[in-house]
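Example (one chain per record):
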Amino acid sequence: MSSLPEIRAERLKKLKVYEASRGTAYPTTLARTHALSVLRSEFSALSQGETTVTVVGRVLALRGQGALVFAVIDDGTAHIQGVFKRDVLGEEEHQLFVDTVDLGDFLSFSGSCFSTDRGEESVLVQSWALTTKSLRPLPDKWHGLKDSDERFRHRYLETTMDPTARERFLTRSRIISFFRTRLESDGFVEFETPILQALAGGASALPFTTHHNALDRDLYLRIAPELYLKKLLIGGFPKVYEIGRSFRNEGIDVTHNPEFTTVEWYEAYSDATLQRAFVESLIRELAHSVLGGSTLSFGDHEIDLSAPFTVRSYADLFSEYPEDADKNALYKQECRPQLIQPTFIIDYPRSMLPLAKKKEGEEDVADAFQLVIGGLELVKAFSELNDPIDQRERFEEEAAHRAHGDTEAQPNDEDFLEALEYGMPPAGGVGIGIDRLVMLLTNTHNIREVIYFPTLREKE
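Predicted structure:
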């Protein structure tokens, strides 16, 4: 087996041979009559006439030798087989193809559509050209790679070679498109909020800190867009949402990535109970849109989204454990992994959610919920706190926690408190983790499998 430097050197020789005969193997313009998906859909009609088609794609298979060679190309929409015959191309052109084309090259060819004796839809090639010469070989069998980090670093190779991986990211795109279309059909307006923030507010997590040289001040990468979106409610927009990236300075494991995608929306004149019903219907609609049904497989489990989602109180989760047990650890290690079928958790302690309203008549309970499916926390939502006096007291409580070493406590945001004093309408707010939702709907158990460019440790 040749080494990578040897293979690359051989391919550079082939490049020189090709360019000496034809000119550049990286042309600026190229002709194409059909995307391969269109060609395949119209193949029957095209094969009946004398139409000449021109297609382009990456060479993913080469077989045959001598007077007859078959090359399968893929343009990202479909694949097609090109049939290269010496007596059609001529001796010189055919030999140039044999001598210079490798797996991984991008190839343009023109010819007529026909089906082989085995019934395979093909193009009988009458002319061809390289459009990109690949200097490194594609992996023979990408799944054979032992090091997952290397596979993540070379995601572009994985999705080139593995249709299942490619489909996972297409599903991710469909999920994001679903939310955008569905929310806007319900009257929501999309906004973009700052990634760099003066205060690391909006959620509880350890922030990334950076420094702006021109302003000579520290700024923070956004943990959540919540406080900005609430200002939009104050500004007269009753339904707002954002789909974007957020950051937390922690986590490179199977369920956490420091950079993550969320969809957050806020609806004026709503509350947690109304949003809970909306979320349930939305998740069900999403499954039908992406999967074509209301059941899905996740690991060894079959999850049914058609039945009404279970509702349990936070306290009920710990009814079988000692009262003095560490509830945070119990929840993560014991309770949450057992919540496989869709379950709303409600009645969180108020102290856990400093931006949520108290439940009517219950001083120490937040009017909030989380949705867990397949052991994954997917949704966090609550009736948004719009009392500026109460909010100030909550921020002061968080400041006390921060003074005692809680680096994830909410900072005191005077700018937001000022905005609240102008009056924010009652509202319900929802945040959904896109990455985990993609994991659930693609039966994937490592978050880095659903993020095309995950954060990785430095390569040794």
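Caption: The first strand starts at residue 53 and ends at 65.
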